[in-house]
Write the structure tokens for this entry.
Amino acid sequence: MHEPHPILRAFQAAGGPLAMTEPLAKSLGGAIVEMDAEQGRAVLAFEPDESFKQGGGVIHGGIVATMLDYAMALACFTRVAQGQSFATVSLTTHFLRSVLPGRHLVRARSTGKGPG
């Protein structure tokens, strides 16, 4: 077993939801709700406010994709060892409906590890 990534250790030490401190995540009201190393899963909560609305009154699609990318990253952090890194190489999003300002849970699961 490898040494867990510091983000996973910080979440485990907090014993509950952990506020995200990266500036964009913080402005979106981001919090880590769950990180499960065994399942490679992460659940994040975001609460984008009115400032993230586009002209149609819904949250801008780029912001929604950003929330998804954060969740994917946190799921990956459950699988990588301290000192390892990763990157989103491709992200394709098919929107099923609009996202309104308010609280949203975003779930992601890491299913494997690429080369390297």
Q: What stands out?
A: The chain has three helices and four strands. The chain has one domain: 6-109.
